[in-house]
């Protein structure tokens, strides 16, 4: 702790001599060189005390130009003088605008001193430059952002505290200055500084958004605009971090208007290269189809009509017309049938020309006069084949579970864990097959009733507690325990109003073989979380 700046001179010199004797073994009162050095140091500190005392007592401090110039000059003195100057320069800065440039330059030099104590003291003083001269906020924040590269913990801590002080003082200017280090796409941008600033914003700013972003609506809009600019050149992880943050704002929260939800979707769209070839790895296709199924209840009739042709095309791809001995991917079929039901329930007559149904709505799009009987025959044959495969698989899984129960009695602990996993997989498989049978049954009719509510509980989703009796499957098929289905939700179609257009444009492009480089799954996930 520093001595009080304005203590009497004699006491200050006495303390200085004692400090030198205690902490500098080489110091000797009898050594000419040491005595001379100590005398110079004492003289510098004595002068600084005098400058500070006069400035502190002066009513019109701007008249004491010589005193402030002396303080600035002392920044070139001894280590102790530099630490004292680091306190005095920002303290009286506002009174000498004509010396502002030289004062700031001298203080910044102190931030780069070899002595850690000097650097830390200088860093702590940086926010004081902006207390009465807010026009310096951007410059000081920019400097502190660069100082985040400091290796010493105590120094880095001082930098972070100084930045937080400025954020509380002027959040708008401070955020703007920080984000310049992120949004810049110039080659000269220091990537290391950019990473440090990103980490600071993620770890220190985002968690305190409720405290810092005031007034809330204005500042949330400001930081949203800054994030938009920053998304021009980000990694996948950075993109997700920013989107997750935006979703946490009230602006895009649970009570967000359709316009705000659409804005969030458009932010994602701005990063999407919709003409890029969709190159989704095989292991990610199931994730895409699951997300597609979960988002299908929230589409609009217009979007449903647009996407249905692609869904039917995929159903024909994964639902064989005849048994060939090749394995069918049951979860793919479950996802696609679930999606088909929800989309067709919103645009029922669109299925006439796709599947040969005869659903009359009175609209020209019914196309009742046209013959699509071949489509109907093809589609229902595929449904029948899927049902046969599902029943056969259910029988095999049930028998397998009986065998697993027998093995469990005499198995070791290690083997028991393996058997439990097998049983869990078998249970999920039974749910999948049961769902498929429940969804194929109504589709055999010429004018089917599509399942547009949440009666079907997808096999990978936890069943809800308030279940209703299950949809009856084909004759002779008993719905296994644990395959409870969700209750109907008549409000489901109301969710996501105005927010499904872009998502479904991406779905259609994805199924056509094109997708943005930003993973399609993230886009689906963003809308689902915002809507729910």
TrEMBL record:
SUPFAM superfamilies: ARM repeat
GO cellular component: nucleus
Annotated transmembrane regions: 6-24
Pfam families linked: API5 (PF05918)
Any single biological process term in GO: pollen development
Keywords, alphabetical: Apoptosis, Coiled coil, Membrane, Transmembrane, Transmembrane helix
Coiled-coil stretches noted in the UniProt entry, renumbered to this chain: 394-421
GO terms assigned for molecular function: mRNA binding
Family that this chain belongs to: Belongs to the API5 family.
Protein name listed in UniProt: Apoptosis inhibitor 5
């Amino acid at each position: 702790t520093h001595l009080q700046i304005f203590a009497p001179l004699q006491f200050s010199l006495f303390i200085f001599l004692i400090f030198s004797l205690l902490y500098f073994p080489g110091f000797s009162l009898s050594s000419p060189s040491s005595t001379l050095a100590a005398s110079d140091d004492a003289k510098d500190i004595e002068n600084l005390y005098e400058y500070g005392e006069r400035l502190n007592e002066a009513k019109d401090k701007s008249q004491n130009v010589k005193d402030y110039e002396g303080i600035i000059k002392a920044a070139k003195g001894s280590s102790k003088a530099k630490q004292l100057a680091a306190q005095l320069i920002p303290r009286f800065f506002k009174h000498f605008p004509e010396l502002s440039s030289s004062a700031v330059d001298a203080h910044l030099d102190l931030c780069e001193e070899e002595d850690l104590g000097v650097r830390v003291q200088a860093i702590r003083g940086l926010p004081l430059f902006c207390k009465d001269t807010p026009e310096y906020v951007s410059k000081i924040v920019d400097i502190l952002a660069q100082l985040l590269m400091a290796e010493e913990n105590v120094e880095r801590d001082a930098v972070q505290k100084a930045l937080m002080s400025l954020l509380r003082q002027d959040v708008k200017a401070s955020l703007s200055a920080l984000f310049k280090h992120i949004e810049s796409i110039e080659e000269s941008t220091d990537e290391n500084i950019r990473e440090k600033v990103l980490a600071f914003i993620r770890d220190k700013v985002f968690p305190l958004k409720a405290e810092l972003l005031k007034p809330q609506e204005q500042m949330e809009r400001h930081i949203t605009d800054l994030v938009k600019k920053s998304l021009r050149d980000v990694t996948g992880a950075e993109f997700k971090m920013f989107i997750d943050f935006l979703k946490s704002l009230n602006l895009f929260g649970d009570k967000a208007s359709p316009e705000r939800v659409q804005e969030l979707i458009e932010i994602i769209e701005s990063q999407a290269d919709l003409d890029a070839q969709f190159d989704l790895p095989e292991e990610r296709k199931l994730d895409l189809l699951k997300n597609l199924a979960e988002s299908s209840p929230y589409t609009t009739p217009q979007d449903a009509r647009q996407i249905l042709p692609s869904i039917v095309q995929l159903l024909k791809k994964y639902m064989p017309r005849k048994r060939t001995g090749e394995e069918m991917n049951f979860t793919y079929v479950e996802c696609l049938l679930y999606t088909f039901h929800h989309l067709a329930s919103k645009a029922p007559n669109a299925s006439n020309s796709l599947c040969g149904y005869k659903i009359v709505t009175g609209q020209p799009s019914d196309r009742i006069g046209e013959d699509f009987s071949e489509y109907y025959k093809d589609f229902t044959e595929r449904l029948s084949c899927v049902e046969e495969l599902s029943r056969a698989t259910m029988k095999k899984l049930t028998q397998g579970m009986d065998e697993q129960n027998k093995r469990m009695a005499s198995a070791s602990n290690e083997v028991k864990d393996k058997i439990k996993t097998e049983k869990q997989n078998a249970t999920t498989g039974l749910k999948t097959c049961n769902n498929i049978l429940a969804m194929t049954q109504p589709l055999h009719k010429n004018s089917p009733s599509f399942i547009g509510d949440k009666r079907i509980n997808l096999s990978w989703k936890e069943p809800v507690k308030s279940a209703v009796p299950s949809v009856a499957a084909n004759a002779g098929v008993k719905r296994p325990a644990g395959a409870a289905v969700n209750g109907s939700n008549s409000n489901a179609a109301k969710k996501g109003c105005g927010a499904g257009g872009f998502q479904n444009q991406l779905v259609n492009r994805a199924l056509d073989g094109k997708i943005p480089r930003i993973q399609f799954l993230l886009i689906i996930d963003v809308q689902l979380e915002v809507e729910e």
